[in-house]
Every structure is written in C-alpha cells, then in structure tokens.
Design goal:
Helix content: 25-40%
CATH topology of the largest domain: Aspartate Aminotransferase, domain 2
Number of domains: 2
Largest sheet: 7 strands, mixed
Strand order of the largest sheet: 4-12-11-10-7-5-6
Number of helices: 12
CATH superfamily of the largest domain: Type I PLP-dependent aspartate aminotransferase-like (Major domain)
CATH architecture of the largest domain: 3-Layer(aba) Sandwich
Bound molecules: pyridoxal-5'-phosphate
Length: 437
C-alpha cells in the first residue's frame, strides 16, 4: 500500500486518482474536472504543465540529467544561481541547493550554528537557543519541527527538539494586544526584547515566515513586525532566517515578502513554487557576512552538507523557465487578485457576518475562519474536512487548516475558475452552516 501524507490510515477517505492536469485543472480517473485552488500545496504557481516549463524540461533531457553536485557544476545551476540572486537585488551572496523546503531550513540552521563556530569568538560559545514563534511552520524534519509552533504536526515530537524559546506569533488580523495598525508598537515582540536585553548572547538565530504564517493558519502580520525583529536580532548579532518557502516568488505580491519590509535578513529559504511544481528543488540564500566565515583553507571550516539530488540539471532548467514566467507575468498576474479579493471580502463580510470572521487577503492568498462551536480552532477541527469534502464534490480542491478556509490559486488562474471557487464557497456557507447559538 501507499502511505499517503497526512492520511488517517483506517479512515473513510479514499485517495482520488488523478490522470492528467492542465492549467488550474486536475482530471480524475472518473472523468471529474477539479479546480486546484491551492496550487497543489502552493507549488504549481503557473498552473499545471505550463508549456514553457514543460519545454525547458524536455530540452534539458537532451543534454544533462543530473551530476554529483560536489566538485561538479553545470550551466543550468550556474544560471539559476545568478538569476535568483538578481531577484534579491544583491541582498545575498551565495546559493546552497537542496530539494525541499524542510531541507532548506535545516541548511540555514546548520550554517548559522557553524558560522559562530568558524568565527570562534569566545563570547558566542554560549549561543545555543533558537527563537521560534507560536504559529509558525517550517517543515516536517526534526530541525524544522523544532522551529515550528505547537501543533498537530509537532506536538508528539517535542522531546526531540533542539533548544528553542517560543514567542507569541504576530497576528494583525486578530491582534492579541487589541492594537490597530495605527496604534501598534509591535507589542508582540516586547517579551523578546526584554529577554534579548538581559541575555541576547544565548541565541543563535530566529526563524520566521515573513508576512504570513501559512500552514499554521494563514496568519498575517505587518511589515512593522519584521522591521522590529530585524533591529532586535541585529543589535545582538542573532542570525535572522526568513522562511520564504510559501511567501516567496510573488505569493505575497513581491518577489519575496521580506522586500516589502525593506529589511535584509541573513538568509532566506525558497522552495514550493521554485520549479512551478514540476520537480523537487529548494534554495537557501546566504549573505556575504555568513559566507565570509566559511572562506577558509581550514578543512574544519567547510560546510559538510549535501543532498544527493541537489542541483538536478532538469530541476534547475524547470526553475529557470518558472523564473522567466514570473519575470514576464508575475507582477501583472498578482495585481489582478487585489481588487478581486477586496470585492469578495466585502461580499463575504456582508453576506456571512457571524458565519465567517477575520477575512483577509494578500497577493494571491485569501483566507478566513469559519465561526463554529465544534471544538478548538486548529488543524484537527472536523469542520475543515467537512468543507473540503463538500468543495471537492463541487469540483474545487481546497484544504482548510482546521476552521481556516483559504485559497492560494495559481497566479494565472482563469477568472471563471476564481468565480467558480467563490460561488462554491458561498453555496457551502449558505446551505451548510447555520449561525452558532
Ligand atoms: C513556510 C514553510 N516552510 C517550510 C515548509 C516545508 O517544505 P517541504 O514540504 O518542501 O519540506 C513548508 C511546507 O509547507 C512551509 O509552508
């Protein structure tokens, strides 16, 4: 049998067999056409089988598939490294290749730890703890889980964590300090600021998803949070890693979410949409400051880390084609969502007041919470699965996170499909859910 991800083995749900895909559409073996409203876990940012990416893959197969990346290189990887660095306008110096988002995070963590070891400064020898946030998610490997917030994904494995200190996640839709953007002084970072004042040298680094915590509930925050976090970490020489696995590559409306905050992190991680959902590839982008600590003849200063399939030439060619599409159409495609989502927010706010709350959108992300009284607001809340099944029956693939219903469509989705997604959501909310008592 196949053990599918996130599946309940003795559950009633049976996997759906997909035989083909094109644009935002998936086609099942039963002849059903499904709109992929979440870009297949946020990867197929240009829809499925974009002709440019398919052509790039085909072409690459005619010359080089893959070669061991230690001691060897090739043109698609060199070009991808150059092109991706250009998208950051010179903020980063080096690119480390891997094959999924969790690994890109592990690499950033290990580089940060070794950065201090290589520098060998006695004042840094006590740096052991990582800063993490309550609603964050950085992947399913042990290191990535250490940095994630408390959730069904991480709870069972907490004993395996490396040392972390957890701080409250920013949430500007539903501010825990009851502040508005005008009155906010980023109070959610006050506790950390106090800790850093007392003993900032205990921390190696901080990892955060910029502007949107994705898998732990599509929780939004303002650029002010990132700006204060950068200042606090910089003042204490703490390495700031921004996890752009979900938010990067135009999902939030810019190449990277950190650019909206006009800050410079020490590293960023990119994966998900990098190859347009065609092949596994991830990148960790690293600043000159960190690279410098590794420029050494001492063999002990090398970074002994390498994933077997990192830098696959075919995956790099797919990524190059995907970047080209983003360069040509990214900005324009994402700008289409702004007024569309504004209108939908207004409609849903008026029509479903009391049934949904916290309606929010940014770039190509639209999210809201279904108000209900069926238990905790978290991933296992059964309402998510109910809504998912009802939408699927109507030909729309969504995957609510507990009672958080969201869509993250391909950037080039047809307007008719967006209309269809929202009319299915409206029908579900109209028919299925009564106002709580
Ligand atoms: C923000 C973020 N970081 C890291 C990851 C892990 O990526 P992967 O599933 O490719 O390991 C995810 C996956 O959902 C993510 O959303």
């Amino acid at each position: 049998m196949i053990w599918h991800p996130m599946s309940i083995l003795a559950g009633q749900e049976k996997e759906i067999s997909i035989v083909s895909a094109k644009d935002e559409y998936l086609y099942t073996d039963q002849g059903q056409k499904i709109i992929d409203a979440i870009s297949s876990w946020w990867t197929c940012i240009h829809g499925h089988r974009h002709p440019k990416i398919m052509e790039a893959i085909r072409k690459q197969t005619e010359s080089l598939d893959h070669v061991i990346f230690a001691g060897f290189t090739h043109e698609p990887a060199e070009r991808l490294s150059d092109e991706i660095l250009k998208t950051t306008k010179g903020d980063f110096e080096a690119v480390f290749f891997s094959d999924n988002g969790s690994n890109a995070i592990e690499i950033a963590v290990k580089l940060a730890v070794q950065f201090f070891k290589n520098k060998n400064l006695s004042k840094d020898s006590q740096r052991k703890t990582w800063i993490r946030f309550t609603k964050s998610y950085h992947g399913d490997s042990i290191g990535a889980m250490s940095l994630g917030g408390q959730s069904v994904f991480t709870r069972i494995f907490r004993d395996l964590n490396f040392p972390t200190k957890e701080y409250i996640s920013p949430d500007c839709t539903n501010c825990p300090f009851a502040k508005s953007p005008d009155t906010c002084n980023v109070e959610c970072l006050d506790e950390m600021a106090e800790d850093l004042k007392k003993n900032g040298e205990q921390f190696v680094g901080a990892v955060v998803e910029p502007l949107v915590s994705g898998a732990n509930g599509m929780v939004f925050h303002d650029v002010k949070f990132l700006q204060r976090l950068r200042k606090l970490t910089q003042d204490k020489d703490i390495i700031l890693v921004l996890d752009e696995v979900f938010t990067g590559l135009y999902r939030t409306g810019e190449w990277y979410a950190y650019q909206k905050a006009e800050i410079k992190p020490d590293m960023i991680c990119i994966a998900k949409g990098l190859t347009g959902g065609t092949l596994p590839l991830a990148l960790t982008l690293i600043t000159e400051k960190i690279v410098d600590a590794f420029r050494s003849d001492d063999v002990n200063h090398a970074f002994y880390h390498g994933h077997t399939m990192a830098g696959s030439a075919i995956a790099c060619s797919a990524a190059l084609a995907s970047l080209e599409i983003l360069q040509e159409t990214g900005e324009e495609n994402i700008s289409r969502f702004v007024s569309y989502f504004q209108l939908k927010k207004k409609t849903f706010d008026e029509k479903f007041a009391g049934k949904v709350k916290n309606i929010r959108h940014l770039g190509a992300i639209f999210a809201m919470e279904v108000v209900q009284d069926l238990g905790p607001d978290e991933y296992l809340n059964p309402i998510g699965r109910k809504i998912r099944a009802k939408a699927l029956a109507e030909g729309v693939l969504i995957r609510p996170l507990g009672n958080t219903v969201y869509i993250t469509p391909p950037y080039n989705i047809h307007k008719a499909s967006l209309d269809q997604i929202f009319s299915v959501l409206e029908a579900i909310l109209e028919k299925e859910f009564t106002l709580p008592a």
